[in-house]
Design a protein that fits this description.
Keywords: Membrane, Transmembrane, Transmembrane helix. By secondary structure, the protein is mostly helical. It is about 75% helix and about 0% strand. It has 3 domains: about 40 residues, no CATH class; about 140 residues, no CATH class; about 40 residues.
């Protein structure tokens, strides 16, 4: 139900402008029933706001093309935010940073880290025993230890020693701490969990370096005795580990070759068509059969 509102005379000098009169006129036309849930003043205010938004609607649709400088800064900001987000995600994937930051109960994370340090420590002790055994070889032993092969053993021994030292330090500091105490110790000097997330993975990193060095040492020793066997086993293991990437690479190469072939055929077809239309005229089109080179 619509109601007409008697607008007062606007002839005096202090009256509203023409735009205001137009706003009040439209407000009076679209005004709802005053007996509704909203008051009359609220309805008039809402109608005036709607009229003002309608007046600027056409102007808001105008698209102003951004300048090259601003668009460049926008792309740079998007790239930096993408790198930042993916960098944080990668850091959280290789460390416990995301779990430490989002954890409500630090007892669970403390138990996981302590169990990991115990496992890594036992593995490093086994590597240390193996390194000591290798260094105990006599010059007239079964294997001839060359200088380049001994370098792998040296790297393995250094990584094992550093990993054991860091692992024992972390166990002494955090193994008997409660959840609240663990959080206080993990925040460190700068009240940040980033540094602890890095430090907590040092024993595992040293174990990885030690294992890789020992693997290279064993492969080098077996290569000096029977390189065919070492090559076959290494190739088989690498193929099984990288089989999905090998299949993806083969499919990508085949698809690229096929796409290049299709594009080359299309280019040759277009060039031939243009040359024939230029030098021989449109005799085939006039005969009703069209150009013989048209697809």
């Amino acid at each position: 139900m619509r109601h007409q509102i008697n607008i007062p005379s606007l002839d005096d000098a202090d009256g509203p402008s023409s735009s205001e009169r137009y706003s009040f006129k439209r407000s009076a036309e679209i005004l709802p029933d005053p007996e509704g849930p909203c008051s009359l003043e609220q309805n008039i205010s809402d109608a005036a706001m709607k009229t003002q938004s309608d007046e600027y609607r056409d102007f808001s649709r105008v698209e102003i093309p951004p300048s090259s400088a601003w668009s460049g800064w926008g792309r740079l900001a998007k790239a930096s935010s993408y790198i930042k987000s993916n960098g944080v995600s990668a850091f959280g994937a290789i460390t416990y940073y995301d779990q430490l930051r989002e954890a409500d109960n630090y007892d669970v994370i403390s138990g996981k880290l302590v169990a990991e340090w115990y496992t890594v420590g036992a593995s490093l002790l086994g590597m240390a025993a193996l390194v000591v055994t290798i260094f105990g070889f006599t010059p007239d032993g079964v294997f001839d230890l060359h200088e380049c092969v001994v370098q792998f053993v040296a790297v393995c021994s250094v990584a094992t020693g550093v990993g054991l030292a860091v692992d024992v330090m972390l166990l002494l500091k955090f193994s008997s701490a409660s959840g609240s105490r663990f959080k206080i110790l993990a925040t460190g000097v700068y009240s940040s969990l980033v540094f602890f997330a890095i430090t907590s993975r040092v024993p595992l990193l040293m174990l990885a370096v030690s294992v890789c060095s020992m693997a290279l040492f064993l492969i080098s020793m077996s290569w000096s005795i029977c390189w065919q066997t070492a090559l076959c086993i290494s190739t088989l293991a690498a193929t099984l580990l990288l089989v999905q990437y090998i299949i993806f690479s083969v499919r990508f190469v085949i698809g690229s070759i096929a796409h290049f072939q299709r594009q080359t055929i299309r280019l040759v077809h277009r060039l031939t068509q243009k040359l024939c239309d230029r030098y021989f005229g449109k005799c085939f089109a006039e005969s009703g059969g069209g150009s013989i080179y048209r697809a």
